[in-house]
Amino acid sequence: MISRLTSRFLVYDCLKIVSCCISLQTATVCDDIDLTEKLILEKRNSLDLSKSPGPDLLHPRVLYEVRHAIVYPLKLIFERSLEDQQMPRDWKSSTITTIFKKGSRSNVGNYRPISLTCVICKLLESLIRDHIMEYLLKNELLINCQYGFIKGRSTLSVAIMLDKWTHDLESGGQIDAIYTDFEKHLIKCPTKDCLTRYDLMVFPGN
Length: 206
Hints:
This protein has about 210 residues and is mainly alpha-helical. Helix content is about 50%, strand content about 5%. Among the domains are: about 15-85 and about 120-145, no CATH class; about 145-175, no CATH class.
């Protein structure tokens, strides 16, 4: 039974990759990102001002207050970074700190480490992320069952399936549920599979 179940998941995963390849054949080339001052300002205004600064000690509140004065220098820095395909050294470093989760504060196991990176680097990352997501969604390169990290399709949307389950149960059907623990799921994700799909989606240029 376990063998049959595993083979179903493997076949389904292969079908997802094949479907992605077919979509890529008809997709247009991803254009270079156009970093305008207006776009940078809009993204800067959306950042959380309560976040902590990174190794450069530039607090989000400070960057917000001087946003109009630094938007053009930021534009030049971002464009140079994309053109040279390199990042400033400070952007590659981070400050490691801990946040309390629950339980006794005297137990080190109740703390979770977090990495504080430069806010300016996060700003550029967010701009690039939006550009890539727009390309992926426009060309339908994401499977329909993808819910996480997509605007308007949070994991809460999956709850709609409850209606179908209720209908099946009322019709005399059977529903089997498997609960899994997603602790450290990002660490345990299939890296080889992720790299394969990344190789399929090559983004030329900047």
